[in-house]
Amino acid sequence: MTLAGRWTATLDDLRGKGRYRAFRPPAGIDFTSNDYLGYGPQCQPAVTPELPRSGMSSRLLRGHHAVWDEVEAMLAAWHGAESALMMTSGYAANEGLLATVAEPGDWVAVDEVSHACIIDGLRVARPRKFLFRHNDLNNLEDGLRAESAKRPEGRELFVVTESLFSMDGDTAPLREVADLCERYGAHLIVDEAHTTGCFGPRGSGYVDAAGLRGRVLATVHTGGKALGLPGAYVCGSKLLKEFLTNTCRHLIFTTALPAAVGAWWREHIPRVQADDAGRRRLHDNAAGFRAALARHGVAPAGRDYVVPVIVGQDEPSVRAATELQARGYDVRAIRPPTVPAGTCRLRVSVHADHDPAVLDQLAAATAGVLRP
């Protein structure tokens, strides 16, 4: 078979399974993006003619600018962390952090439904991996207990989880996970991609809202969801930042974000911190939408503003999403490999700026398209 033939066969197989993907421009009311606080439509960078609009090179060459020192200091203060390190994306931040801090011979326990960038970071690092059942503390403790009893000299244990899971919509039992890490001498890393801006009195995330900042090795935050900003960052100790700056290939060999984007961050962080009203609207809207679904006999998984409605198979999920799109609701079907086979779903992303009446209408429409 030729290379073109191999590719064509793969695409034909995806079509046959109902898993073929194609780009679709935004249309209708946004229930798909992760713009949880509703900043996207109006969040635009300030005009900064004095700042470069290209990264030009990596930060360690000519891509650094003093604005990033300001931004990182603001972010560290926001989270009550010693330091923050800006990266180009959440994917690069997660993959780069794990590929750098974990080494062959170390042991890493990771929740089985963690994002692909976490799994890919471990593939690069090549530690011994333990996938524990989703949010199963007993299964995690079994792994930690067995591993701590035989840990080789100089080898480290890590536990990695998301705080709010992007496809399941539930949250990790972080206090209990932190307790287990301390009991067995493991380092805890938390991906805060879907909670940054949305939890806590100043929006700094789930870890800070739970009072766990001093009990984690690192947290990863993205700007591309609730904050409406390009880029991402890692929070942790000053030593961690220094170590990543000198050894993380995802930072060293990547063109830096433009300094003009740094000005955007500098301007926008205080807005996010002050937006308690937006956070209240977000959580109220999520509770209202879930209650409306329940009134129509639909029981979504998880909690809060990521609302997965499990359909099951590929074709019915795509068909339901297409019908909702035709009615003006931009809801997408989530299929393997993003979620396990047999758990295809409609993933509804509730935002702070959604009209409660429209959410009620979407709940009724969702129940309608799911009826046989």
From TrEMBL:
InterPro entries: Aminotransferase_I/II_large, AON_synthase_class-II, PyrdxlP-dep_Trfase, PyrdxlP-dep_Trfase_major, PyrdxlP-dep_Trfase_small. The lineage of its organism: Bacteria, Pseudomonadati, Planctomycetota, Planctomycetia, Gemmatales. The keyword Iron does not apply. This is 8-amino-7-oxononanoate synthase. Its EC number is 2.3.1.47. The keyword Translocase does not apply. Residues 29-364 form the Aminotransferase class I/classII large domain. It holds the Pfam family Aminotran_1_2.
